[in-house]
User: What shape does this take?
Amino acid sequence: MKKPSLNPEIYYRIFEDFPGYLAILDEKGNILATNAFWQKEAMRKGLLVRPDCVGYNYINLCEKAEGEEREFAEKVKNGILLVIKKKIPFFSLTYKLTDDNSKALKKYLFLFFPLKGKPRVFVLLHQELPKGEVFLPLLETFEEEKRPSSPPSGWLSFLSAVLYPFLNLLQDKLEPELEKMRLEILNKIKEFEKETLSSLNPLAVLTTKEAQIALLVKEGKTSEEIAKLLNLGKDAVDFYRKKIREKLGLKGSEISLKDYLQDLFKFSSQD
Assistant: This one.
C-alpha cells in the first residue's frame, strides 16, 4: 500500500489534539493523515498494522460497512462524493450508533469539508456529541432538536472547549463560502454560551468587578458604601452600575437594579 506524498505537518497543528476522529482525505477519498485519537481508537479496535489508516480509501471503507453502520455509511459516502464533486460546499450528519464497549446508544456528528489551497484536500470529522437534547441553529441537522428549559452543561463544554477552538484554528484555511459559515457558527456558539451561562449563573455575563458590585447592590448597599468597600470612587461605581444594567437588559428601564438582582437570584435558586 503506497503512502501518499502529501506532507500533513501543517494540518497536524490544527487536528492533532482534537478529542474525536479527524482525518485528511484527498480528492479520491484516500486518507492522507489522521489525528492521535483516531489512531488510538484504531489500535483499541484491533487495527495494529496501520492504525493511522494512511493509504486506505475512506469511500471504499464505507462501501464495505455492515450491520448497523451500513445505512449511515451509505449516506456518508454519498455526501463525501457530493462535496468532492463540488455539488455542495460541505456535508454534515448527526446519527446514533451503539457503542462497542458500553452497548449504549450514542449520538455522533459527522462533518466533511474542503480546505483552501492546492492540492485540494478535505477534513473528515467524526465526533461523539454530549448527552441531552439541545437546539443549535449552526448546522441543518440540528434543527430537529427541541430546546430544553435548561441547556445541558455537557453541550457548553463541547462547544467552548472543543468546537469553538477547532473553528478558530480553521481561520484563513477555508474558501470564502465556508469561511462565512465558520464565522456565523462561531457567533452562534457565543450566543449559546452566553445563554447557557446565564441560566447556570445570573452574573455569568458580568466581569469580576461588575459581579462584585452587583452582589453588593443586591444586598442593598449604596454607591457610596460600595465605593468604600471596594476602594473605588463613587463615579466609578455608578459607571459599573450602568454597565451592569446594560448587560442585564435593563437599559432605559425604570426597574430597580437591586430588586431585579434579588428576583434574579431567587429565581435561579429555585432551578
Residues 1-8, 137-151 have pLDDT under 50 and may be disordered.
